[in-house]
Design goal:
This protein is 33% helix and 15% strand. By secondary structure, the chain is an alpha/beta fold. Helix 2 packs across helix 3 and helix 2 packs across helix 4.
């Protein structure tokens, strides 16, 4: 039986294949860092020459480590707010809902129309996992995020915002803060040095995608609007995974130790029942 063809042509969207392949490969390990059998099933069903995903073993592991930490942030949020709403921005073909579902969360997966069309073929939506088709920068999708007034809300943006211009990201964060005061945002960030290195890697692998948003100080976002506050910060190299190989040594180099990180923000003015920033 023929596999499912890829109609996605947007260079940024095409990057969804990289973490999918990494998750699938990870399932071959005796003790995988993330258990995700859905990823392996998707790879088998997609008609694609996976040899084109040119990543080193360390790069593949780093993708999985990033995913594991994002899952941890979401699980922590759901521990504090079990019946909350989560919006997964740029969801790609990630089965995060299935990995972290606590039986109560209301979930929205947001991505471009071609990606959502492919996702529906591979992983149909459910009553608590609904799909939103469109650009994150088109505010129309925000009106579809229906939730009871005051219900906690989390936006998760993994390996997404870094591909867009700084002014686009700024406008988005300000709009989320205005429309959903008190919500939380978890996203990854890269310094200018890391952006240059990653873009060289993308060039070497013949990808047309490029990182564009670099952040030297995560607290700079606090000046974007009243009530935007950095709550938690995590560097991938604070607790390096030995299987990453060379990148696991980056924690010893000041220029690299904070070059890639995950940040959690409070948006708006609603008080957050949470400890002080770490």
């Amino acid at each position: 039986m023929a596999g499912i063809g890829l109609r996605t042509i947007d260079p940024v969207s095409q990057t969804l294949l990289i973490p999918l392949w990494a998750r699938a490969v990870e399932q071959r390990e005796a003790a995988p860092l993330v258990v995700d059998p859905i990823a392996a099933s998707m790879v088998e069903r997609i008609d694609f020459d996976w040899r084109k995903v040119r990543l080193s073993r360390g790069d593949l592991v780093q993708c999985v480590v990033r995913l594991r930490e994002f899952d941890r942030f979401v699980r922590d949020f759901l521990t504090r707010h079990p019946d909350a709403t989560v919006v997964h921005v740029g969801c790609g073909l990630d089965a995060r809902f299935q990995r972290v579902d606590n039986g109560l969360v209301h979930w929205f997966d947001l991505d471009l129309p071609d990606v959502i069309a492919l996702r529906r073929q591979l992983l149909p939506e459910s009553d608590r996992d609904r799909y939103l088709s469109g650009s994150v920068f088109d505010p129309d999708w925000m009106t579809a995020v229906d939730r009871p007034e005051g219900q906690p809300l989390l936006f998760v943006a993994e390996a997404v915002l870094c591909y867009f211009e700084p002014e686009q990201v700024k406008r988005l964060v300000i709009e989320l803060s205005r429309r959903f005061p008190g919500a939380e945002l978890v996203t990854d960030m890269f310094t200018a040095f890391a952006v240059r290195i990653d873009n060289l890697h993308l060039l070497a692998t013949h990808s047309k995608a490029r990182l564009r948003w670099a952040v030297s100080d995560p607290r700079a976002l606090e000046a974007w609007g009243h009530g935007i506050r950095l709550v938690e910060s995590f560097s991938y190299f604070e607790d390096p995974e030995p299987r990453m190989g060379l990148p696991s040594w980056f924690a010893r180099l000041p220029l690299l130790s904070r070059s890639a990180s995950i940040q959690r923000y409070q948006l708006g003015t609603t008080a957050l029942r949470d400890p002080s920033p770490q």
